[in-house]
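Fold Annotation — chain and its backbone

Fields — amino acid sequence, structure tokens

___
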Amino acid sequence: MFRKVLIANRGEIAVRVITACQELGITAVAVYSEADRGALHVRMADEAYCIGPAPAAKSYLHISAIIEAALACHAEAIHPGYGFLAENVAFAEACAEAGIVFIGPPPSAIRLMGSKIAAKRAVEAAGVPTVPGYYGDRQDDEILARAAEHIGYPLMIKASAGGGGKGMRMVERPEMFRAALAAARREAKAAFGDDTVFLEKLLVNPRHIEFQILADHDGQTIHLGERDCSIQRRHQKVVEESPSVVLTPSRRAEMGEAAVRAAQAAGYVNAGTVEFLYDEDGNYYFLEMNTRLQVEHPVTEMVTGLDLVKHQLAIAARQPLGIRQEQIVPRGHAIEVRLYAEDPENQYLPSIGKVRLFQPPIGPGLRTDAGIASGDEVTVYYDPMLAKIIAHGADRREAIARLQWGLAHTVVLGVKTNLALLQAILADADFQAGNVSTSFLQTHALLPAVKVKQDLPLEVLLAAAGMDLPPASRPTASRGLAAGAVSNPWRTLGPWQQGGEYTFRYYYHGSEQWVTLSRAIVDGDAWLATAGTGGVAAAITSVEGLRVRFERPSSESIIVHQSGRRQLLHVARQGDILLVACEGQSYTLEPARPPDVAVAAQSAGAIGVGRESLTAPMTGTVIKINVREGDMVKAGEILVVLGAMKMEHAIAAAHRGVVKRIHCTEGETVEGGTVLVEVEEI
């Protein structure tokens, strides 16, 4: 076995590999960009080396810098994780040239399966069915357009060198084809340095089912069963589970054997995944092979009891697999969800900033693979996935219930997340019945549903008030003011009343909320609470005379006792703002502030009547500007394409109008909220 391994990645997968190495007694070496100097994977590693500036192209994708770091620390092998250089042939070859073991398949297998066109030809020769489409070498627009007409609409344009939804576009009608082709090529070129595409017939409501493969240097290849990864958004998996509810034992064996043949056709070694589309009639078609460890590998580990990273290390060290196919007997059911830093109220765009508090769930059958901890920064430079939360149960029903409990006990404060969406998916009747497909989120309207402002629970308001109570909250005899109290004129009103009374005012989504706490005369440890709303649209029901007690287990948690119920909530401060976590949801309570008349007046006249200001929804790079000043535009027309966190975001006009001013240039990096284009409505 190796003595020292360098992990050429970051985030949760780097943490995962570091842990496996350390359990085996292997020295784990991290690399990091300047933006990740204090990241969790760096803190956990035995050694760590900076490899460049924040942009991935200058750090985690910088092959020579990573090889130099490995040579400098005398690492015998490099584990690439997933993403970045994990499926990069040049990187695997550079490792070999430097005398360093690449923990993954040989370059020839990466090259073959990295070309979706070549891969489909190879597996077809091995008797594996593929989706009807165009996989030819001719790439000019006319040839592709004619091929699209022959295949029929709807269809998919996909990057040959792609993965993870990059360079992929769905085309429903012929008139949409050329614009979609240009966008797919542009994104593929930026992501993979290769704009070659292929076309596939779009299957209606298929499932995405994949098989985990392990293969050693002696030619032994086995599969570890399947994962159903059908629930996706923007072609990115959101929920994964094993086993799939639709596969019979015979169909599972048949697809598993096809997956093994596909891997053998590529001369595959190490861990990999063969992906299939499974249609409503029970037909399956080869989609692609991922020549690396998958994000969703933990669900396979949970049902098989195998550690895939340790098997990767052993295979790379040329140890025999030591497992026969008949020994793989999955037990129970496992489900994984991906926790992203995303803003549901802003089209699920990545949310950046400091994670004020992160607390994963702890309980039987629960596992969290995280790349962040409290105090860490989520930056614009990398993928916004924070963690994966996995639950295992004796059956699917138990796994769902366990995961629902886990999400309700997950705390993330400081950045917005997709927790509400994950909870909505698990609660959906069709999901619970196993009726899913790759169009699940589009057909079930869960995405817009969780954008709606949540009502403010009473316990959240009480927790905020409890956290804002002064350290010594008993009144003094002379003034009725709590000893050591710090007055905040915009949050606390009053003087204190006889017996000790505090009134706190907050704003939640623009609606004023208030709560008054006064000492209970009979029970000195209790408070009498009166709460309500001062806004037009009430967020909570007014409560009078409620008896409340508070406990403070830590500086970031509070237990609210009310009406015989005991509830633990978590609170973090962001300046004057209170961030409160309750049952898997987060709430932002802002202090009451006096109006800034000057600022309000300036804002009112900033753009002018009938003029629309299109702003950057997040920090990113301006990839393309499609208009010039003076151009006429129509509603929905894409004016600017912004790139951020490995994705393209289209900025479109909301109304018909004239472009009055363009405030950005192509290639420029802009901050979120920056005005990009002004359009005067006509």
In short: Residues 474-499, 535-539, 594-609 have pLDDT under 50 and may be disordered.
